[in-house]
Amino acid sequence: MKKSLLVRGLRQRWMISSVMPVILVLALIAILMSATIGSNYYSNAQDSLQAKAESGADYFNTYVLNSYSEYYRNAVTYTANFDAADRIELQFLDANGRIETTSRGAIPGTDPATPEIREVLESGEMRPFMGDDPITGEQILAVSSPLTFNGSVVGIMRYVTSTRLIERQVLISTVIIVGITALVVALMVISNLIFINNVVAPVAEVTEAAKRISGGSYGIQIQNRYSDEMGQLVDNINDMSLKISQSDKMQAEFISSVSHELRTPLTAISGWGETLLEDGGEDPEQLQRGLNIILKESYRLGNMVEELLEFSKIEDGRFTLQVEPMDLQAEFEDTIYTYRELFRQDGLSLSYVDGDELHTDPIVGDPQRIKQVLCNVLDNAAKHGGAGKKVTASFQREGSNYVIRIRDFGPGIPEAELPFVKQKFYKGSSKARGSGIGLAVCDEIVTRHGGTFTIGNAEGGGTVVTITLPIEGAEEEK
Q1: Res. 452: pLDDT tops 80
Q2: Are strands 390-398 and 349-353 parallel, antiparallel or unpaired?
Q3: What is the spatial distance between Cα 122 and Cα 214, in angstroms, rounded to a whole number?
Q4: What is the side-by-side strand order in the sheet with 139-149?
Q5: Strands 363-365 vs 349-353: parallel, antiparallel or unpaired
Q6: % helix, strand, coil for the chain, step of 5
Q7: CB of 53 within 8 A of CB of 159?
Q8: 378: closest CA among 388, 389, 391, 365?
Q9: Distance of alpha carbon 138 from alpha carbon 127, whole angstroms
Q10: How far apart are CA 153 and CA 145, in angstroms?
Q11: For residue 75, with 0-12 CB atoms within 10 Å meaning exposed, 13-18 middle and 19 or more buried, which class applies?
Q12: Residue 394: pLDDT band by 50, 70, 90 thresholds?
């Protein structure tokens, strides 16, 4: 219902704002054309009558007006042989304005009583008239031309025609113009309705889908039936909906996972705390074991809280670096030394390859952030690759960059999940503990140092993490 109302509203707005002005312009053009054509018809008819009257009057004034009898005889003959008598009435009037002879219609001796006759008698100049005939009431067009003898008006040659034929021609022309205008308007309306159905209706569909997405219906897809810009818009909306759905799902999983991850160490801490309180320290072995577990779980809980804080800083723009020249190889070897003993306690071996080279060229970075990345990657190697009982690490220089590779020999990452492992909240099919934001934070830190952070599956099994960081001044030297 909302979609149909939206389409109807868009259609009305489109018709009013785009189509109606064009229709009004076309109507105005039609009116002006009809008026112009009508005026031309009447003007041409009047010019034709004036030409006939001028020609006939010149003939009579030049050759006939020698005597009244000769004039009258020629007037009767002229009217009798008038070849346009079916359309035009030819009249000869005397000096008093009364009809002496006519080709048809009027009765000799009557006065036509139109105003142009008196004007011709008084001025001696040709005059037109268009209006109602005072005798018949018919709409007529008349032209009266003076007949002169010795400088005096002795008669009038008058041509009269009904305007019915002119009105008929004007009406036919007007009907044709109106018909053409109506056809153009109909075609324009039809084309605009087609346009509305092809553009406005899909926009309404996309708008409705966007409303549903904003209302929480994440993941809905619009059927794409278009191959133009509208198709691109639909694809973008569908992609946005899918990504929002994935993000919403990952966020929900993240909240659930973090709640579980926080609950586990808290449960262990509170449980062992109650146990030790009840025991009262009488069993030294149990006291030592409990304190170790409490410290280990507290450390894990602190790491998770730290990750959450780092993620919060990234999200609101408070994530910053305290950069300075640093010895990356020394920092990495210190981290290896620390984790080698921790791995040994968990039954894992950590081997390190440096190529027997000492790389003293510094990088510009934040030592604490870089250490955070290295620790996180080693933690993940032990957590996800512990089944392989082995982790290898290497440090080497490649061109103007230092490259660190850390590999485990676990089951690896499913190929379908590789493009998403660095996304926030993503945990995939892994059952290992974690918040799902550690790798996203690592990627952000390395990227801000101008390096790259990539994760892939190694040949022979397991996962390999590659960290590339630029060496200070290496590009200038190169």
Answers
A1: yes
A2: parallel
A3: 89
A4: 99-102, 88-94, 152-162, 139-149, 127-132
A5: unpaired
A6: 60, 15, 25
A7: yes
A8: 391
A9: 19
A10: 10
A11: buried
A12: very high
Q: Is the CB of residue 113 less than 8 Å from the CB of residue 136?
A: no
Distance CA 90, CA 47 (A): 16
Lowest mean pLDDT among 64-73, 155-164, 255-264, 393-402: 255-264
pLDDT for 473 equals: 67
Determine phi and psi for 325, rounding to 5 degrees: -60, 135
DSSP string, 220-233: --------SHHHHH
* Cα gap 453→377, rounded to integer Å: 11
Q: What is the sign of the dihedral through the CA atoms of 179, 181, 187 and 193?
A: negative
Residue 303: φ, ψ to 5°: -60, -40
Q: Is the pTM of this model over 0.70?
A: no
Distance (Å, whole) CA 462 – CA 389: 11
The answer to whether 296 and 340 are in contact (CB under 8 A) is no
Residue 11: φ, ψ to 5°: -65, -45
Question: Rounded to a whole number, what is the largest CA-CA distance in the chain?
Answer: 165
| E strand or H helix that includes residue 16 | none
Lookup: tokens for 174: 């007007």
Distance of alpha carbon 368 from the chain centroid: 47
